[in-house]
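Hey all, quick one. A colleague (J.T.) asked me to put the 2-acetamido-2-deoxy-beta-D-glucopyranose job into the tracker so the inputs and the structure tokens live in one place instead of scattered across chat threads. No bug as far as I know, just bookkeeping. Sequence used:
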Amino acid sequence: MGSSSLIFCLIGVVIPLWKSPGFSAASRINVALSGTAIQSSTYSNLGKAEHAIDGNSDPEWEHYSCSSTSYEAKPWWRLELPGVYRVSEIQVTNRNAKRKRLNSVEIFIGNSLVNNSNDNPRCAIINDDPGCLTQTVKCWGMAGRFINFYKSFDVADALTFCEVKVYGEPAAPSMSIQKMGRNITLVGTRLCWSDALLYCRDSHWDLLSLIGPEDQEMIDELVARATFPLTSQLWVGLRRSPSGSSWFWMSGDPMNFTRWDEGSHHSSLCGGTSSRKPSTWRQLSCEEHLNFICFTGLTEGVKKLHFYSSTRENQIHCT
Ligand SMILES: *[C@@H]1O[C@H](CO)[C@@H](O)[C@H](O)[C@H]1NC(C)=O
Ligand SMILES: *[C@@H]1O[C@H](CO)[C@@H](O)[C@H](O)[C@H]1NC(C)=O
Ligand SMILES: *[C@@H]1O[C@H](CO)[C@@H](O)[C@H](O)[C@H]1NC(C)=O
């Protein structure tokens, strides 16, 4: 994955969470075309699941170009991608703009097949306005191999699509370890500091904060186990306030432990940790493209904040 595909490399600006612009695929390649589709049942043997990814979105062709399940309770349609992708956007074309057939269809993205993939994180619930033929749903880089469309109603209905287009890019290689209640992931792609922050906030919780010496030692362990090449410095959530000399962690953790490299001058706004043992911190130019470390909590019940689904109005567009 080329870093050029990411849209924002803001310098010296901390982006508020609610403005997280997410990711856009550089090349608008519809990756659904290289996937495979299955559905809960098939209407009259005609509306085959793969018709929704045949590149023909014309509703005139009906069952010859649109997928359709039989009339049944809780129908679903699922796309399996050729690998794990970070999905930026999904376009769904309805069969009939007058009937709100896609209303309340839920979209799940992830790697699990449990409960027909409906246990994966949800990107959106389609709010099908009348007159809307194609809906665009933003998923802001949610990662997964399976994309499931599900209508949870008990009332028998057909789930039908004339086309489903998926824009995204293959997910970067990564390596995770679990330490002290946190799941810590070293990411194989190289980004500037602000893109790394967005990446972590989209797919994990945040850029890593190092709260104590054990965390610093854990960096050495993580680096030793990486199966992909690393830059000599790694981004973590270290940031300096533009007005002063105080550094803070983006996650809001207290900075009661520091491991600055001797001779590191604090003239830049972004900080990283070295990938050479024993690792120390450096202030670095925010535009440098480096590997980086994200974290999530391990505790059940503590849920990631889904920044991308906070306002549905911004998320789903009708064309
Ligand atoms: C399956 O997923 C749906 C949608 O997320 C949920 O409402 C339902 O409770 C799940 N069923 C089971 C058996 O977990
Ligand atoms: C840790 O995070 C990685 C990357 O998001 C994920 O694949 C893995 O399942 C997580 N492990 C645990 C124990 O939560
Ligand atoms: C820093 O503060 C946190 C939370 O207050 C605490 O859990 C941690 O042990 C402290 N670390 C050190 C090195 O004092």
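Adding what we noticed when we looked at it: The longest strand covers residues 76-93. Residues 174-316 form a domain with the Mannose-Binding Protein A; Chain A fold (CATH 3.10.100.10).
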